[in-house]
Every structure is written in C-alpha cells, then in structure tokens.
Amino acid sequence: MSRREPTGSVGVVEAQQRATGPCEVSWFSALCDDDTTQLGVAEAALPSSWEHCREIVLAAEAGGFDNVLLPSGYTLGIDGVAFAGGMAALTERIRLLVAVRCGELWVPQLARQLATLDQMLGGRLSINIISSDLPGEQLDSGPRYRRTLETMETLRRLLDGEAVDVDGEFVRLQLDPPRVRPVGGRSPLLYFGGLSDDARDVAARAADVYLMWPDTVDGVAALIDDMRRRAAHHGRSLRFGYRVHVVVRETEDEARAAAAHLVAGLDDDEGARIRARSLDSGSVGVRRQAELREAAALDGFVEPNLWTGIGRARSGCGAAIVGDPEQVLAKLQTYRELGIEAFILSGYPHAAECRRFAELVLPHLDHAPLTGPTH
Q1: This prediction's pTM
Q2: Domains, in order of start, for the chain
C-alpha cells in the first residue's frame, strides 16, 4: 500500500495497525452550536443544548469511542466544564476532553474545577488548552502565548499537587500544595494546538499532545518533524493528535454524494459570514485551511479522500476524510504511520455520523485511550 495514496483491503489496514499499535479515537460534541444537516442552513433542533449534546456523548460511548471533545466558545453554545460535570454521572467508560480557555479563569480556580471534575469522572478527564484572549480584550500573539505558557505550566504544577511560587509576566502566585487533586495525583493529559511559531513553541514546552487541523499527508509529516525537533530542544517528547471531519458511506460514490449534499444549500456569502465571526478567523491555522481550499481541485479534494469543502462554512477544522470504510481506514492508517496517536473526529449531523462511523469503521481500528503523562 502506498503511504501517499492509500488503497487496499481492510485486512491489510488492520495488519498494519497491529504493527503500529493502538490509537485514541475521539468524537466531538457540538457544544458551540456546530451541528447541522447542511452547512449554512440553520436548524431549530440542532443548536447546542444539554439534551442535544448529551445525546452525542452517549452515542459516542455506546459506539465504542475512547474520548469525546467538549469544545468551548465565548459567545456560542453551552459551557464545557459544567456540561462535563453533568455527564460524569451519565457515562461509565468514555473519557471527556474538556476545552478550557486560558483567558476565562484564574489558574487556581481552574485547577480546582478540573481536579474536582476528574474525581467525578473517576480519572477519565483530558484537557484541551485554548490560548484565548480575555473577553473584550485582544493581545498580540506573542504576549498571549506567553500568558498561555505560564498558565499551562502553573496549572500542571497545581494539578500535580505541587506548591507554586510564580512571579511571571502574567501569573503571580504563592500557594501551598492543593488538597484536591486529580485521580492518581497527577495532571490529566494536556492537549494543545496552534500553527504559528509562538503556538508551536508553547506546545513543545508544555503540551502532552499536540493537536493539528487537516493538512496534506506531506504537510502533516513536515509539521510532526518540526514539532519533534522543537520538543527535543526542550528535552521533551510529544504525542500527536489530528482533528478532522469524516464522511463515510458504504461506497465512495455515496460518500461523495453525501459530502456534496452537505454544502448544497450553502450560500458563499453566508459561509464567509460564518467564518468571519469566529474569534480565530485571522489565525495562522485558519489561513492554512483557506490555503488548502484554494489548492484543491474543482470538486474540493486537495488529495485522495481529503475534501476541503467543509471549510467553506467553518473557520477552524476545515476538511473531511471522505470515502468508503476501506478508504477511510487507509487514510487514518497513513496518518498513524506518520506518528499520529489520537484522532478527534466529527461529522454532520454529529450524532448520526457518530453512529455511522462506529458501525462502519471503528470496529476495524485498533484503539485505546491515551493515558499516562509524558512530562
């Protein structure tokens, strides 16, 4: 099987996955009003709510996923930390990857919330750090990421049960070791993403799992190589995660038709408005997603089975793996061979695509949750 243009049978893919070991396979719960049947077409039943997002998480657990991302936004949707606390009593096995925004909470308060949440979940918490501004404030990239680094380093020490004496540019604290700690006494894994040099440096110094948005196979390989070098410079190692949408159907023709239907009702002006209202619309990562769309063929595919049409109405993660089960498996395996250990998948509408992926693809993947700190 060619690494660059994967084809072949499920049996071949499974054999290769046994050689590379298990990967974490996560789904996405649309806490930020990111659910629809057709992009750019509002549906009254799909904006985020406790009931709707609960259904997605429960579908992911029933389907066998390892983890589920609970995203966070200032103005859209519902709160991820509060939602995770509610889900703790309703789930038994699946982990929750809770997104938290550095600009929203004081670090000791955040550490106490997360330690408590991990206890409620019985140790099933993972943390997605977002380098956000404070509401109503906008810092330049450099100082914002310096604040993020100080926040991550201090948060980890508190979650590890250490005393802190920090006199930083943004974080100034003198605290005794906290009594409330996560299960196991160590910080849950910290997931973090960003494509700018500032973001990459923060990830290399403070993250456990570096998350990336869709890119070509060559682009993913180059980014992993760069991040490994950066982490090694700081005496660290990283795991790698890949956030991407999926459109899987019994046949490739059906998958392509489903992808086309997803954007069939999209007005280009409405798509531009959707992208522009995101707080990260000017980031390096978002610009890279736009470059992929511009480089794609007329049908939106930038390389085999990677379709960029979804980014016409989405500011962030802007591409989908599209194909039949064997093609989707082969594409995921290609990323595994490059070093990806965690996938965060999603599809529209989220609950329906979750169940479809769980039926058609997930049973053929060797997967298990990422556990154990890398720091």
Answers
A1: 0.91
A2: 10-364 (3.20.20.30)
